[in-house]
Amino acid sequence: MTRAPFIVIEGLDRSGKTTQTSLLQARLEREGISTKLMKFPDRTTTIGQMIDSYLKSTSELDDHVIHLLFSANRWEMASTIETLLNEGTTIICDRYAFSGIAFSASKVTTTTTTPSSSSSTDATTVPKLPFEWCRAPDVGLPAPDLVLFLDISPEQARLRGGYGEERYEKEEMQARVRQAFKRLGDETRTSSPTGVAASGKQWLVVDAGRERDEVSAEMWSHVELLVKGTLTSPIGKLWNDKIL
Question: C or N: which end of the chain has fewer Cβ atoms within 10 Å?
Answer without folding.
Answer: C
